[in-house]
Amino acid sequence: MSAIDGLPPLRAVIATHGLSAKKQLGQNFLLDLNLTAKIARQAGDLTQADVLEVGPGPGGLTRGLLAEGARRVLAVEKDPRCLPALAEISDAYPGQLEVINADALELDVAAHLTPPIKVVANLPYNVGTELLVRWLTPRQWPPFWQSLTLMFQKEVAERIVAKPGSKAYGRLALLVQWRAEARIVMTLPPEAFIPAPKVHSAVVHITRREAPLYPADERILSRITAAAFNQRRKMLRASLRGVAPDIESHLLAAGIPPTARGEEIELERFCALARSLAG
């Protein structure tokens, strides 16, 4: 399908520019423009927003974002092979697409964008979680972005939205849900991609909270959740022993049974424990 714009189908673009997905770059190209436009729509109204896209590859999602009326798109692409294909999209949407050949982990993207800002990306598998954590742990909150609409391996997406008592519940769920609201809005089978990955994928829509859901010191919360989930099967009185010598009294003060395990404890209780330790 190429009806969303006057540009060639993505298979033709890939053939013309000799593009093949590189495993070492975490690339899996999504070629169905119906799907890329659908992903773009999950981010909501884009007409009044700047959009950051990381890892656009040959530009399928980029085209979806622009066709859905994004005010402006900043596409950060590490692979220089993709730049000619992205330049063709830029020519078709004058003044609306800026492409930067850079590593998103090393670029101050906020300096290139004007609020309100939404992040929409089919993230490279090898840096997706690291980028998410960085976007959720800036020096100051609220962050530069309003929302994140991101594609991950389905297993990672399930960890982001997981609830207490499930095997997927852990530090990532707590980090995301403390500062944002998250939900899975799409799932995609391996055959939607070239090359087909070994796993299903899912799109997660994350909306920032203006302030964290419960008060807590970020550093203390990070430390206790790391200790609680590094050895998931241990009781908290054992896994958190290194955090404070009197950890059992802090657990009780936070309403947490010392014999409980991390996967059983909801976010509110972890925040209460962080406050007790800080006090």
If you had to describe this structure to a student in words, what would you say it looks like?
The chain is of the alpha/beta class and 279 residues long. The protein has 2 domains: 10-208, Vaccinia Virus protein VP39 (Rossmann fold); 218-278, rRNA adenine dimethylase, C-terminal domain (Helicase, Ruva Protein, domain 3). 35% of the residues lie in helices and 18% in strands. The protein has 11 helices and 9 strands. The strands form 2 sheets. It has a 7-stranded mixed beta sheet, sandwiched between helices. Helix 5 (128-136) links the parallel strand 5 (117-122) and strand 6. Helix 8 crosses helix 11. The radius of gyration is 21 Å and the shape is elongated. The model has no long low-confidence stretch (mean pLDDT 94).
List keywords for this structure.
single chain; 279 residues; alpha/beta; Rossmann fold; Helicase, Ruva Protein, domain 3; seven-stranded mixed sheet; 11 helices; 9 strands; 35% helix
Largest sheet: 7 strands, mixed
* Percentage of residues in DSSP E strands: 15-25%
| Whole-angstrom Rg | 21 Å
Structural class, from helix and strand content? alpha/beta
What's the CATH C level of the largest domain? Alpha Beta
What is the 3D shape?
elongated
Helix content: 25-40%
**SSE string, helix = H, strand = E?**
HEHEHEHEEHEHHEEEHHHH
Can you tell me the number of structural domains? 2
Let me know the number of strands: 9
CATH topology of the largest domain: the name is Rossmann fold
Low-confidence stretches: none
